UniProtKB/TrEMBL annotation:
GO terms for cellular component: T cell receptor complex. The keyword Signal applies. It comes from Erpetoichthys calabaricus (Rope fish). This is Ig-like domain-containing protein. Residues 1-18 form the signal peptide. InterPro entries: Ig-like_dom, Ig-like_dom_sf, Ig-like_fold, Ig_sub, Ig_V-set, TCR_variable_region. One of its GO terms (biological process) is adaptive immune response.
């Protein structure tokens, strides 16, 4: 019953099926020093979407990595060197690129789309939802030691 009430409340806020993000791969493995790309696909009614990337180290809290739009991207402090991202409004994809991967890059990467609801409604919404909402996705990235003689990439369901 509570779940139905929450869904009705969310629908009344305009928060629901109109905006969402997902990711083709749930897990990626790359060798150290290699470039890796993480793709986020999104649907939104917003004509100027903002997309946020977050990183959660394997033993830590999530941190803001960068914010991107179709015209610019800004990296958070500490992520200016090897992290870059692009957003394509036509294909509705965002690509996060990590150049020269390090073991310390092993983490869960979150992609979040800026909600289109107003701030007042968003505060009420945040009280109802758990940490992960339909507007975030996560990807586990594991960096393998460089002495491996092969490149590994796999998708895990």
């Amino acid at each position: 019953m509570l779940q139905r009430i929450i869904l009705i409340f969310l629908a009344s806020l305009g928060y629901g099926s109109s905006d969402r993000v997902w990711q083709p791969e749930s897990s990626v493995q790359v060798l150290q020093k290699q470039q890796t790309e993480i793709i986020c696909t999104f649907e939104t009614t917003d004509t100027d979407p903002y997309l946020f990337w977050y990183i959660q180290p394997l033993s830590g809290s999530p941190r803001h990595l960068m914010t991107i739009t179709s015209t610019y991207s800004t990296n958070a402090e500490g992520f200016k060197e090897r992290f870059d991202a692009t957003l394509n409004r036509i294909n509705k994809t965002a690509h996060l690129t990590i150049s020269s991967s390090k073991l310390s890059d092993s983490a869960i990467y979150f992609c979040a789309l800026r909600p289109t609801v107003r701030k007042i409604k968003l505060r009420a919404l945040q009280k109802l939802l758990s940490k992960k909402t339909a507007l975030e996705i996560s990807l586990n990235v594991h960096i393998l030691p460089y002495n491996e003689k092969f490149r590994t990439f796999y998708v895990q369901n």
